[in-house]
Design goal:
about 475 residues; mainly alpha; two-stranded antiparallel ribbon; about 0% strand
């Protein structure tokens, strides 16, 4: 294991983080806010530390092993969460634990918060929170992969460890550099289109840009305490729904649509088609229950709220126009359940990913057929593709670890002082990178104990790195190698 090279790459990411602080500084200068000083020392510290790590490893071997890749990814997210907390302590006056929670929530695109009074806060600080989510959405790892070859450092191991979804070996283009650039071009184009849509729908330019950053990243931070409910605009909600759905679809499918100039690729992709069908079914169910048992006199009103909240939850964005925790019957718990499904693999959404859930359902149905026809050879298929049995086993292994994490963290959250249902929803919202929960954590995590917040940080990192990446480096066998 080449720890010096690992440190060099982490140093490069610290340099990139320091450079990104130019964004909130420019916003503060534009609006003539004194709060820009809160970003200067974090910028200097990140640049200096990053430059030091880069310099001490510049003459080392430039090839990463698979183990190095997992270590770099994990260290990077931990480091970025720590660096991201620095401006939050300076600008918002948060305690170290609160700042770490908010920073980790931003960079993992969770959207849970410990801050209120957003409407009256300086715009430079608000923009910083939104920017954290935007960079975390696709991952600065992929950005680094795009420039690593220019520095003579291979990056495929990083891409395998960071890329969300179970099909980590696949690439959009023959060359990894082209893949990373294609992902970022699509990501940037969606962000620009989303900002334009919000602006045309009635947002101010600042709100439009800020919310586009958290929409396309499926992060959910807002510049207002009431989130999207602040605007009370069907047009703005429609823009949000469209781009939340787009952000939760595999970016590989977006690439194919762009390449073929054919939107029908969305329906040809099994996972995207299943995802959209699942969303429609949940919207219909929630809208119907709201109309029959909720305070809605008209179907279109219940469907409007149902559409926004279902899409926001299943894509793990976490925007809100109403407090779904107070919806009637089983709806609050149902929305927490569907957050475990999440978006598509290869998207910015959280959760277990639709493809994994689809594979588990198909394999379950196959087991039933195998019992009926014990001598039949029944290959597991995903569309026209025969699924490798090793992939199916890995999906069930991931599900077992995910379930174990939920159970263990829920017990620990109860020990940290939350009621059982609140503890379960707190773990679900952090592990699925969602944001809003139920009960005490329906709106913010302010009242949660420091232990509970630290458990939330662990859950957010586990969810962002899909558990396995962290568990690999915690394994004694990994270090014996």
């Amino acid at each position: 294991m080449n720890l010096v090279l690992v440190g060099r790459i982490v140093g490069i990411y610290a340099l990139i983080f320091g450079i990104t602080l130019t964004g909130p500084i420019l916003v503060g200068v534009w609006y003539r806010e004194a709060e820009v000083v809160h970003f200067l020392w974090p910028m200097v510290g990140s640049l200096a530390g990053g430059a030091f790590l880069w310099l001490i490893g510049r003459r080392r071997a430039r090839e990463l092993s698979v183990g190095d890749g997992y270590l770099v990814v994990t260290l990077f997210w931990v480091l970025l969460s720590l660096l991201g907390a620095w401006p939050l302590m300076n600008g918002f006056g948060l305690s170290p634990v609160d700042a770490l929670f908010e920073s980790t929530s931003g960079i993992t695109t969770t959207g849970a918060t410990v801050i209120d009074g957003l409407d009256s806060m300086p715009r430079s600080l608000l923009f910083y929170r939104q920017q954290l989510q935007w960079f975390g959405g696709m991952g600065l790892i992929v950005l680094g992969v795009a420039v690593m070859p220019m520095l003579g450092i291979g990056g495929m191991q990083l891409y395998r460890a960071e890329a969300p979804g179970p099909l980590k070996e696949e690439k959009l283009t023959p060359r990894l550099t082209q893949t990373a650039r294609a992902l970022w071009l699509i990501y940037f184009a969606l962000t620009l289109a989303c900002a334009a849509g919000y602006w045309l729908a009635g947002m101010t330019p600042f709100d439009a840009v800020s919310h586009s950053l958290s929409t396309v990243s499926t992060g959910g931070f807002s510049t207002h305490d009431a989130s999207m409910g602040h605007f009370a605009s069907p047009a703005i909600e429609a823009v949000a729904v469209v781009f939340m759905l787009l952000a939760a679809i595999n970016f590989g499918v977006h690439y194919l649509v762009w390449l073929d100039r054919n939107p029908m690729q969305y329906l040809r992709d099994t996972e995207a088609r299943t995802f959209l069908g699942f969303v429609l079914a949940m919207v219909a169910l929630v809208g119907l229950v709201l109309y029959l048992e909720g305070p809605y006199d008209q179907v279109h009103a219940s469907l409007r709220d149902a559409s926004f909240e279902v899409v926001s939850i299943v894509t793990s964005t976490g925007f809100g126009i109403v407090d779904f925790a107070h919806w009637p019957d089983f709806l609050p718990l149902l929305l927490i359940y569907i957050s475990f499904v999440g978006g598509c693999g290869g998207s910015t959404a959280g959760g277990m990913k639709v493809l994994r859930v689809l594979l588990m359902v198909k394999q379950g149905a196959q087991e039933v057929r195998q019992l009926i026809h014990p001598h039949a050879i029944l290959p597991l298929r995903l569309g026209r593709r025969i699924v490798d049995p090793r992939l199916a086993r890995s999906v069930w292994g991931f599900f077992a670890l995910y379930s174990f994490a939920v159970a263990t963290l829920t017990l620990l959250m109860i020990h940290a002082g939350l009621a059982p249902l609140d503890a379960f929803s707190a773990v679900a919202t952090c592990l699925n990178n969602l944001g809003p929960g139920l009960g005490e954590v329906a709106l913010t995590f302010q009242s949660v104990s420091d232990l509970g917040k630290l458990l939330g940080v662990v859950a957010m990192l586990l969810g962002r790195l899909e558990i396995l990446t962290i568990l690999v480096i915690l394994s004694p066998a990994f270090w014996r190698r």
